[in-house]
Amino acid sequence: MSYKVLAVNTGSTSTKIALYEDEKEIFAKNFSHPDEDINKFDDVKDQLNMRLEFVRSYMEEKEFDIRELSCVVARGGMLLPVKSGAYVVNEVMLDRVENHPVMEHASNLAAPIAYDIAKEAGIPSYIYDSVMTDEFPDISRISGMPDIPRKSTSHVLNTRAMAIKYAKSIGKNYGELNIIVAHLGGGISINLHHNGQIIDLISDDEGPFSPERAGRVPCRELINLCYSGKFDKKTMQRKLRGNGGLKAYLSTVDAREVETLIQEGNEYAGLIYEAMAYQIAKGIGELATVVEGKADVIILTGGIAHSKMLTSWIKNRVSFISHVEIMPGENEMEALAYGALRVLRGEEKAREYIEV
């Protein structure tokens, strides 16, 4: 039996959709929303109708009847902590992301869009591998300060999809392997998958700096800077997320531009870029200790994993731990669609989202 799945992924300035028939992508569209359009709205939730109209109009342009769909699957928004995998989009979930999100974020719009289209078509809608996935054991939550517990936030969607894909490629069950996955994008996070769960991770503010994020920085100096009187809270937040990392050092978030500088003989650019690889490798080594060094594979994924320069530096430092597999790209639309297909085929069961 063939299945048709529509995937919906809402970002801060984009709305992505993709139609899959089984594992084959039929069409895809990335709607880029200019700042002037986004700035018209006071709150993220007010953008819902605008983004939904883009999706519906494109489906009509493609002359695709939504009644041919088997389901619609969306990026998971800012819910209360959930398990990995699929959840049915229900009224409780919609109320949370629309009216009481854990954090205001564009991902909160994906589930309502999926629900609206699915309801009209008379089919189910799901989210898959929400950013709020939390499968930490208690020991992973301890930070050193009782009032700041560690939280499970990372690039779950892509890292878990690549871990499942790798396991399948070698004829193994994902739940049988210890897999370290580093997502290398605008933000960098590193996950440890053990027995089918993400039991520990290094989030984008706990570890390596990235193209636009500062990552882990010395705490005492950070506190001093916060109270120096030079910067307000918003500016400090932007120093950590948005204006940190490669942007702070080299005035660009584009790794390709950095590599061009290096090829032109810019030694400082080379130092900074290799330092990013160095920190990524340190993070991978840190997580390897959680499973006593028994990692079956280390996967490098995300957009910057296309960089042979960066991945070779990382590989040189961590290959003593385990085999390094490079699986570049964001892969988020594929991850959503493939997750929904596993539900439709009965390989996984979708959970019901509830709040106690």
Walk me through the structure.
With 356 residues, the chain is of the alpha/beta class. It has two domains: 4-133 and 333-352, Nucleotidyltransferase, domain 5 (2-Layer Sandwich), CATH 3.30.420.40; 138-322, ATPase, nucleotide binding domain (Nucleotidyltransferase, domain 5, 2-Layer Sandwich), CATH 3.30.420.40. Helix content is 38%, strand content 19%. It has 13 helices and twelve strands. The chain has helices spanning 35-38, 48-61, 91-99, 110-121, 138-141, 156-169, 219-226, 233-240, 245-250, 255-263, 267-288, 308-318, 332-344, and strands spanning 4-10, 14-21, 24-32, 71-75, 86-88, 125-128, 178-184, 188-194, 197-202, 297-302, 324-328, 351-352. It has a seven-stranded mixed beta sheet with strand order 3-2-1-4-6-5-12, sandwiched between helices. Strands 9-8-7-10-11 form a five-stranded mixed beta sheet, with helices on both faces. Strand 1 and strand 2 form a beta hairpin. Helix 6 (156-169) crosses helix 13 (332-344) and helix 11 (267-288) crosses helix 12. The radius of gyration is 21 Å and the shape is globular. The model has no long low-confidence stretch (mean pLDDT 95).
